[in-house]
Predict the structure.
Amino acid sequence: MRPILIVPGYRNSGKGHWQTLFEARFPGARRVQMPCFEQPSLPGWVAALDDKVARCARPPVLVAHSLGCIAVAHWARATMRPVHAALLVAPCDVEKGELPSMLRAFAPAPLERLAFPSALVASTNDPYLELTRAGDLAFAWGSRAHVIEGAGHINVASGHGDWPYGEALLAAML
């Protein structure tokens, strides 16, 4: 069974969030517990992800959301650990001035090609990531881009608890 590592973003992914539902539905799915979801620290998040990947018996599939996507990109450029694939959903633009300073501490977002296959899912109206920036990140990371019309930040607030499209993308990666 392929391990799946759920990499939440700022403030974690609570009850009803698609990541939480994936964790319950997919055998082998485990959440990466970050040192602090309320006061994220780039070194702490990268270390937590590295520890969880190191404990996997097989290269995992990473399933990241928002700030978790940026943490994955930082981790990927600092490691040689194998990953099977990554689903990167609604990365936040950590270089946007209106974000809290603790999130901007993850800036700049790495622009190196990821060493594993990946898909980046973006929305046409995400308040935390303009579509052109999503395209830039997908291109830089070598990710296959998937654009969803009017999906907001692809979280509970935008109506994405149960998310069949995301489940299909993850299933294809497995």
